[in-house]
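Backbone-to-sequence.
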């Protein structure tokens, strides 16, 4: 194709993909408190990260598990438990939430420059400063609901 044709070709919208790890043990879920990131600092979330490109979502989850909390998860031990489509007004996101059937190591805060607390909380008693969409997803995961949406104007017409 010529450069002129390529320039005229419609560009598709882009979505930002991220992965999250939902570790639940003895009725508790592992959460981290964000710090020094510029996004939701001081609030609790889950171990997570963006896809870097050139990797599958499960590969990204394996990488992020090591980078953020120092545990080793095998791809075959990851199960997708929820997908969230978020409208963030300036962009859209697809967030994929995985559980791990098993993992190696003990969760540790491996990024103290981005996280100032890593703790287990009862799944039905999350900290009051949990990021709202994370709280929504934890409730959906507990209810075994595989998909939800957040941030969309319910009156929006197609």
């Amino acid at each position: 194709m010529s450069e002129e044709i390529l320039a005229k070709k419609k560009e598709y919208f882009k979505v930002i993909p991220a992965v999250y790890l939902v570790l639940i043990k003895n009725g508790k879920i592992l959460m981290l408190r964000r710090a020094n990131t510029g996004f939701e600092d001081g609030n609790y979330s889950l171990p997570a990260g963006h896809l870097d490109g050139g990797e599958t979502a499960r590969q990204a989850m394996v990488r992020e598990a090591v980078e953020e909390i120092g545990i080793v998860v095998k791809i075959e031990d990851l199960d997708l438990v929820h997908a969230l489509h978020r409208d963030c007004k300036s962009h859209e996101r697809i967030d994929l939430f995985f559980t791990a059937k098993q993992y190696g190591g003990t969760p540790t805060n491996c990024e103290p420059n981005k996280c100032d607390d890593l703790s287990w909380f009862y799944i039905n008693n999350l900290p009051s400063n949990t990021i709202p969409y994370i709280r929504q997803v934890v409730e959906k995961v507990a209810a075994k609901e595989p998909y939800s949406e957040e941030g969309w104007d319910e009156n929006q017409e197609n």
